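Structure in, sequence out. Go:
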């Protein structure tokens, strides 16, 4: 099994255990591939739910540029809802899992 496949399995387990979500493995795989090399770096593979600059990066680079959503309060509400679903106290929020949950939250599976 490749390193990426191992990470996808880990992300699916995280979705199940921490979010109570049965992952759509096809979509999760596409989201993970879309994250590129960032999933292999310890710092960039996670998202800090309490770091405003990091959340702004998620909003600008993922929601607006990747998913094609318009900037507005709805994006901040969506990010907040996903952080709540993942568990604010959970220290390790994997970027691919956050992006997967955001994709589902906004119904933008067609972006993949």
């Amino acid at each position: 099994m490749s390193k990426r496949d191992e990470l996808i399995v880990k992300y699916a387990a995280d979705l199940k255990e921490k979010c109570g979500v049965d992952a759509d493995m096809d979509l999760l795989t596409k989201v993970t591939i879309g994250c590129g090399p960032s999933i292999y770096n310890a710092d960039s593979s996670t998202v800090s739910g309490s770091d405003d600059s990091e959340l702004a990066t998620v909003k600008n680079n993922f929601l607006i540029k990747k998913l094609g959503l318009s900037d507005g309060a709805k994006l901040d509400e969506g990010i907040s809802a996903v952080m709540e679903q993942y568990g604010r106290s959970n220290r390790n929020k994997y970027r691919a899992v956050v992006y997967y949950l955001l994709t589902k939250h906004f119904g933008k599976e067609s972006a993949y």
